[in-house]
Amino acid sequence: MSAPHARLGYVLVVTAAVLFGINGGVSRVAMGAGLSPESFTTLRITAATLVFVAYAACFRRSALRRPRGTALLLVIALGLVGVTGLQLTYNVAIDRLPLGIALLIEYLAPVLVVLWVRFVRREPVRPRMWAAVALAVAGIAVVGQVWNGLELDGLGVVMALLAAVCFATYFLLGEHNVGFDDPLRVILWAFVVATVAMNLIEPVWTTPDLPGSTSLLGRLDDHAVSPWVAIGVVVLMGTVVPFFLMMVSLRHLPATIVTVVSMLEPVIATVLGWAWFRESLTAVQLVGVVAVLSGIVLAQTSRRVELTIPPP
Q1: Got the DSSP string for 149-178?
Q2: Maximum distance among all alpha carbons in the chain?
Q3: Which run of H or E residues covers position 225?
Q4: Which of 128, 246, 263, 295 could be bridged to 311 by S-S, CB 3.0 to 4.6 A?
């Protein structure tokens, strides 16, 4: 792989991570208009699916062919867990926790992946795995200030942990051979499955009437925007565009590097939470953040077999 292509890969994955990080703040604005996390998740997934289908119909009609056999089962699992489960738990978590902490807990997924492959698959891992687990657990304990009785919303923490489990499951499912030459086909049909699932949980036609404008919250509380504008930004710039950027970045960088670099997302979310929503962390909590991020990096690099996963 040539250096220019590698640099392009880094630019793509960093841009995607920044967009995903900013998406958390815009999602809060959308939900602040009166949308429950369930209704918002249905709108986001359904609209993103329509965009993927429209793109495929115009530029890559082969992606519209329904998968079959084992590939269909894998796509269903990806849609139910990697899209529906992850997005729903993520939206509940960011609605009840500071942005940075919610994303930090979600990004425990690489640690869960390594524990799974070590004790369930019995694959060899490097000794640094134990340091990774210790750092991650200790860091989360410090961020949550467990010595003060865990000063975080209990349901929010549970949802963030479930998001980490869904994220890890998505990683593990993605290691299997999907059987497609075109990753767009995988993403498109996974979103189709997720759209059906979310519309069974919270049908899109039950979306409540939204006001003409909603506050931008936090330091921008004096400003307002149409909630449909916020939803549109989430769908295009927080879902479709970063999905494609991640997908293209995997053509230029190994998946292990992509997943490590994408950890910029919780960092961006933490900075955004401070700059936009006045969310602050103590010096001790910042030490915990560094510990968690260090643990994730160690975990992601402790496997002896390289991960090959589709973009989350």
Answers
A1: T--S-HHHHHHHHHHHHHHHHHHHHHTS--
A2: 56
A3: strand 224-225
A4: 246
Token pair of 183, please?
A: 């990753």
Query: Residues near 286 by Cβ (< 8 Å), separated by ≥ 6?
Result: none
272 CA to centre of own chain:
16
Mind listing the pLDDT tens digit for each residue in 32-58?
Answer: 999 999 999 999 999 999 999 999 999
Q: Is the pTM of this model over 0.85?
A: no
pLDDT of residue 249: 76
User: pLDDT tens, 183-238?
Assistant: 788 889 999 999 999 999 999 999 999 999 999 998 999 999 999 999 999 999 99
Q: Between 152 and 10, whose confidence is greater? A: 10
Helix (H, G, I), strand (E, B) or coil at 224: strand
- DSSP secondary structure of 41-70: HHHHHHHHHHHHHHHHHHH-GGGGSPP-HH
| Exposure letters 142-172 (e unless 16+ CB within 10 A, then b) | bbbeeeeeeebbeebbebbbbbbbbbbbbbb
- Give the whole-angstrom CA distance, residue 163 versus residue 248: 24
**Is the distance from CB of 39 to CB of 202 less than 8 angstroms?**
yes
Query: What angle (nearest 5°) sits at the alpha carbon of residue 62, between those of residues 59 and 64?
Result: 90
